[in-house]
Amino acid sequence: MDRVIRVAAVDDDRMLLEGLDAWLSPVADLRLVRVASTVEQLLREPTEPADVVLLDLVLRDGSEAAQNVRRLVAAGRRVLVLSVWARPDQVVATFAAGCSGYVTKDHDLAALAAAVREVAAGRPVFSSELAFACLGDERPTRPRLSPRERGVLLAYASGMTLTATARHLGIKPETARTYLDRVKAKYHDLGRPSRTKLDLAARVREDRLQTG
């Protein structure tokens, strides 16, 4: 028999987790070794390491999906995202963060098991439906920032406080806050984390933004 693939699941739907346990138990080469309601809980209470983590896209703790993927990948896990949505921006964002696959929850057990096996083998899982949806998505992966929004982003992400950013640009702190909120909203609409200063610094690096 092929090696057993150890699976963990992060989802805050207890009924779904219990169903998943029963669902996978007859599958000889897959074994559910850990469930958690948040990524924080999964990483804080390590048990038997998982080969593949099934990650729900939207969790009640308010965590960003892409950030959850990054944390799991940094911990050495391969991630298969599960979602009721096939939103192109979320698909792009989670793959950019390092996930190995994205499957919608309307698939049956055979399809999920096949996806887990592909991810465990180091192969990406990306359904034809999701590929078609992403091809039809005309939104850019980088937000369109005005010169003032760009200036606030660069100054603030460099480590300045919002007050120092405003002083640097010769504007009022409340005006700087307005521009910063617009920047965050534009990144959020693209499914890219923008909640903290560290998030914004990462977006500056990824987009290779420079002054001038």
UniProtKB/TrEMBL annotation:
PROSITE patterns: RESPONSE_REGULATORY. Pfam families: GerE, Response_reg. Gene3D superfamilies: 3.40.50.2300, Winged helix-like DNA-binding domain superfamily/Winged helix DNA-binding domain. GO terms for biological process: phosphorelay signal transduction system; regulation of DNA-templated transcription. Residues 6-120 form the Response regulatory domain. GO terms for molecular function: DNA binding. Signal peptide: none annotated. This is DNA-binding response regulator, NarL/FixJ family, contains REC and HTH domains. It comes from Micromonospora auratinigra.
